[in-house]
Design brief:
The complex is a heterodimer of chains A (195) and B (464). Chain A is α/β, with parallel strands linked by helices and 195 residues long. Helices cover 23% and strands 25% of the residues of chain A. Chain A is built from five helices and eleven strands. With 464 residues, chain B is of the alpha/beta class. In chain B, strand 5 and strand 6 form a beta hairpin. In chain B, helix 4 crosses helix 13 and helix 10 packs across helix 11. The relative contact order of chain B is 0.12. Classes of the chains: A alpha/beta (195), B alpha/beta (464). At the A-B interface, helix 1, helix 4, helix 5, strand 8 and strand 9 of A face helix 3, helix 4, helix 5, helix 9 and helix 11 of B.
Chain lengths: 195, 464
């Protein structure tokens, strides 16, 4: 008998009928001050939140934040003519990327997390390997809580997806917070005005 | 020869290890306060959500439902994961888990790998197993890397080097990473580790990770980190092996909306971890394996008293709040998972070896109070004590003490006389109790004995 069959046979004996799944918990969070809440939380976890009027404005605002020259890489169709796009199939060539720019689907006000799927990343390694990460969402795409986030994600298909809340961080040395443990040292969320 | 080797084999129990940790009183105070600080942050985060208790209740019931139906959910998960292009393996115990991992590494012809945090691989002693076969495992979580360089095991599941001072880490990094002597700035030390580990991320072709949640409905796994080390390792590797205990399953994706609201708030007081990554399909050209490990779990499901321990989502809140853990340190538990939850998980794996752990508790119940999935931890600690005594795993001195207490407490007259004698002795011959042979005198002063007993006082005062 294979290990699989043995484990499943042991578990079959333990099948218990009766207890059903509970209802989901509807959050008490209000919908009204989502932008302010998101900004406050994002800053508290080491992130940064800015506004942009349109796509060229995204680039100009980011250039202002990251003035020193470096390798910028982008996976946003609307920015193709302004910033280089991801082309290499091998993620190891992304190691020297200074600023990575990509779209997210939405941000979550209660924790500052941005939902981003692999089709938006250019390469799955880019959001983790670049030195600074900039995520762009529409200002109207802010959801109050993770409950709303999964309502929105629903049964959608993706190969890989992640919530990113602020820059990579650690407090493993005497609980001192240090930004940029392995991944990006900073995270900028750009809220794009809806025209 | 046999006597000396049996002495070596006999490991120190929790009390003996705690005594070693307690020698440095200033360090114990620091350790205690650091963990209490994290417990306070947890409280603050929990109190921001009016629905906190409803979330705990829902999480507990979802996990309970999964345990009732684990067979069906695992079969569904396997089917969905495989149709996503993930190879699923099953291991009955630690040995089989380690063999599967080794076989995959060997087939790929690799001798160095990166690994993010996985308590399961600690439980299986995988690093030692692979090291003995010439494979170097680089732990990439900063805290785990620190204890690995020091040749230690993690002392806390979320904060692996919570017992280390920055000055000591400075000395360690000076030796292993060539940082400047006397340098103990956390920023500089973290930067040195980042640069060193980046080289390993870039060169490693295989990454091992744990699993926080596995979704039956979609066949995907969720990994939560703050550092991004799991993601960086996986995305730069040709092969990803994710190791999980079979209890990590949750039924549907939308249930993450409950668990991700609880996990980081309970663990560190953060609103969510920096990264909550959902792996549904390997990247093009990449191999992805998931190993489902039983290692005693299916057996424990059959135990009504102890099965709820399998609800654990490894947040560590019970450790941060535990008055014993905070003052005895994680290593006093001699098990991969320390603290109150470790003390109810460990005896199920090896009753004889871990018989001391359920006694490392005051049964104050603080662990149960903070547990995000409402495991009745302190009640299980109490029940384990009864099982361990019944099965003959408790030493004779403890047994004699308890039966002596039983003899006195069940005889009211004897209890009264003994109380009077005790108070008289403590008043007139304090040195008989205030000495190093009395374990209650360690690290504390004995109380002033009252002049009369409570029942005496009550009789006198009731009349007034």
């Amino acid at each position: 008998m294979t290990s699989r069959d043995q484990i499943l046979r042991n578990l079959k004996k333990q099948l218990t009928a009766g207890r059903s799944l509970p209802e989901l918990v509807i959050p008490a969070e209000s919908n009204s001050d989502k932008i302010e809440k998101l900004k406050t939380v994002l800053v508290s976890i080491g992130g940064r939140c800015i506004h942009a009027e349109n796509w060229p404005d995204v680039v100009s605002k980011l250039s202002h934040i990251f003035p020193s020259p470096g390798r910028w890489l982008n996976s946003i169709h609307e920015l193709e003519t302004l910033i280089d796009s991801v082309h290499q199939p091998d993620p190891h060539f992304l190691e020297d990327v200074t600023v990575g720019v990509m779209k997210g689907h939405f941000a979550v006000a209660e924790n500052g997390a941005v939902w981003i799927t692999s089709d938006q990343m250019g390469d799955r390694a880019l959001p983790f390997i670049c030195e600074h990460l900039a995520l762009v969402i529409k200002e109207s795409d802010i959801l109050p809580t993770m409950y709303d986030a999964y309502e929105s994600i629903g049964a959608s298909k993706y190969d890989f997806a992640t919530f990113i809340a602020g820059p990579s961080k650690t407090a493993d040395i005497e609980q001192s917070l240090v930004l940029g443990a392995h991944g990006p040292k900073s995270l900028t969320l750009v809220l794009l005005s809806v025209i | 020869m046999s006597s000396s080797s049996s002495v070596e084999e006999k490991q120190l129990d929790h009390a003996a290890r705690a005594e070693v940790f307690n020698k440095d009183e200033a360090r114990v105070d620091w350790h205690d306060q650091t963990l209490w600080f994290i417990r306070s942050k947890r409280d603050k985060a929990a109190h921001t959500l009016p629905e906190w208790e409803a979330l705990r209740e829902a999480a507990s019931r979802i996990k309970g439902h999964v345990l009732d139906n684990l067979h069906d959910y695992l079969v569904e998960f396997e089917k969905n994961a495989e149709s996503n292009g993930i190879r699923v393996h099953w291991a009955q115990d630690a040995q089989e888990h380690n063999e599967i991992v080794h076989r995959i590494i060997q087939t790929a012809g690799i001798n160095q790998i990166v690994k993010s945090k996985s308590m399961l691989t600690e439980e299986c002693h995988m690093n030692d197993y692979l090291a003995a076969r010439g494979i170097e495992v680089i732990d990439t979580d900063l805290g785990e890397r620190i204890v690995q360089l020091a040749g230690e095991a993690p002392s806390h599941i979320v904060l692996p080097c919570i017992h280390w001072k920055k000055e000591e880490i400075g000395v360690l990094f000076n030796k292993h990473l060539g940082t400047l002597e006397g340098n103990s700035d956390p920023k500089l030390l973290t930067a040195a580790a980042r640069a060193d580990l980046r080289k390993h991320f870039m060169s490693s072709r295989l990454a091992i990770t744990g699993v926080n949640f596995a979704i039956s409905e979609t066949g995907e796994i969720i990994l939560c980190t703050n550092e991004g080390n799991a993601d960086l390792g996986v995305q730069l590797a040709d092969i990803h092996i994710a190791c999980m205990g079979i209890e990590k399953i949750i039924p549907e994706r939308k249930h993450l909306g409950i668990f991700l609201r609880l996990l980081a708030r309970s663990a560190t007081g953060q609103p969510v971890t920096t990264y909550s990554s959902h792996f549904q399909r390997p990247r093009p050209g990449q191999q992805m394996h998931i190993i489902l490990v039983d290692n005693g779990r299916s057996k424990r499901l059959g135990s009504k008293d102890f099965r709820n321990a399998l609800k654990c989502i490894r947040c560590g809140a019970c450790m941060n709040t535990c008055p014993v853990y905070r003052r005895s340190g994680g290593h006093s538990y001699h098990h991969a998972v320390a603290g109150p939850i470790g003390a109810i998980l460990a005896p199920a794996l090896d009753m004889k070896k871990n018989a001391d752990l359920p006694f490392a508790s005051t049964l104050c119940g603080s662990c149960t109070y903070v547990c995000p999935v409402k495991i009745d931890i302190h009640e299980q600690l109490y029940k384990w004590r009864q099982v361990l005594v019944r099965e003959g795993h408790v030493d004779t001195a403890k047994k004699a003490g308890v039966s002596g207490m039983n003899a006195v407490l069940s005889r009211p007259l004897l209890y009264k006389v003994a109380g009077r004698v005790g108070r008289w002795v403590m008043r007139n011959f304090p040195s008989l109790t205030n000495n190093r042979f009395n374990p209650w005198y360690k690290q504390r002063e004995m109380p002033q004995p009252p002049s009369i007993s409570f029942s005496h006082w009550y009789r006198e005062n009731r009349k007034k």
